[in-house]
């Protein structure tokens, strides 16, 4: 077996350990001569090797090795889970909780099997055996349960984990995958020319875009023309496919065979959505729109200008954005945005299912809202003010009460303060963050002498002062 650490590749052979530091071009013997090496595992800076006569440890990158236990047992597989080291042998499973100094047998539930392989996923430990197939332990190896439903071969010679997927290589029946912690396994061996799988490894999943034309049975990498292989979202419009990447938006017009960069470059695009002929892109700087199939892009922020946009959803002519400050809505192609809930919550995903919209958040669970609510809100938004205004108080002159009205086209931090003719603050009427809308405030001047007073509105960058007269 081969294992990689840093720039070093270790190979276990029937004549000890070999090391390559130049990507496999050259190899040098690195100890344990005349030993059969079946498995490696790395634990911090330590390397553990499963050999034909026990477990060996190296603390200096393979230069020196020391035997640390299970003498005279053939160790076929080895793995680490936290402070626990598991070793699979012809005599079942062994566990060490003190870095290999002491070992104990942990075979409860294992039925006279040879442990050939391991895989760890969170608190779950999987053991590939012969002849028992795959076993699962969720209590650090104390108990084991057989999880073989769907496996057509009882010899699981190789295991590995990739995200939430578990892969099992069998000796004679190819590859299997489980997406539900081993409850069920399905074959995934299209393209394999040999069904005797001895080892598995996972190397990064940021490989770009894959396309399947047979409902996921077989996938083909389609990266021609891409300058970045990390993708966050895809959107389809007719024969056009738009991809949000770490380097802007890419477009394919031939089902992914080739890709070209659109006019949005040099920025991470977490979400792409299409509404009619308009394309929207969610970025750390807010929302961009393209009306010419991605050639040109315009930042359409307004209220979301200071928010990272993680997700977008489209319903009729309404655009919904999930941001680091909650959910925002626009009914005019992004010209104006209005906060519609989940204040100060990171909203990483949005999806429309039936007549409801769902929001996936960071550490705040999943939320939902009916689309009819959004339609109602979008209708109300059409009646909202289009500009900042501060109206003349009414009545004026007044004694002792008067009403001051103001309008906000977008949410703002608002201050409304009354001053006397000397510029001294008399009373703060408003000092808070306000959503867009029309507002009225009552001012009671009881206790104040007759005279001229001023009231000043500050809302974002907007400032206006008006005069009023108190007449006793």
Topology:
Elements: E1 2-5, E2 8-13, E3 16-20, E4 28-29, E5 37-43, E6 46-51, E7 54-58, E8 66-69, E9 75-81, E10 84-89, E11 92-96, E12 104-105, E13 114-121, E14 124-130, E15 133-137, E16 145-146, E17 156-162, E18 165-170, E19 175-178, E20 186-187, E21 210-211, E22 220-221, E23 231-237, E24 240-245, E25 248-252, E26 260-261, E27 271-275, E28 278-283, E29 286-290, E30 298-299, E31 309-315, E32 318-323, E33 326-330, E34 338-341, E35 347-353, E36 356-361, E37 366-370, H1 371-381, E38 389-390, E39 401-408, E40 412-419, E41 425-434, E42 437-444, E43 451-459, E44 462-470
Antiparallel strand pairs: 1-2, 2-3, 3-4, 5-6, 6-7, 7-8, 9-10, 10-11, 11-12, 13-14, 14-15, 15-16, 17-18, 18-19, 19-20, 21-22, 23-24, 24-25, 25-26, 27-28, 28-29, 29-30, 31-32, 32-33, 33-34, 35-36, 36-37, 38-39, 39-42, 40-41, 40-43, 43-44
Query: What is the 3D shape?
Result: elongated
What's the CATH C level of the largest domain?
A: Mainly Beta
The SS-based structural class is mainly beta
Q: Calculate the mean pLDDT score and round it.
A: 83
Strands of the widest sheet, in order across it, are 1-2-3-4
Termini separation comes to 96 Å
Q: Classify the beta-strand content into a percent band.
A: over 45%
Count the beta strands.
Answer: 44
CATH topology term of the largest domain? Methylamine Dehydrogenase, Chain H
Question: Number of domains in the coordinates?
Answer: 3
pLDDT under 50 segments (min length 5)? 1-6
If classified by CATH, what would the architecture of the largest domain be?
Answer: 7 Propeller
Largest sheet: 4 strands, antiparallel
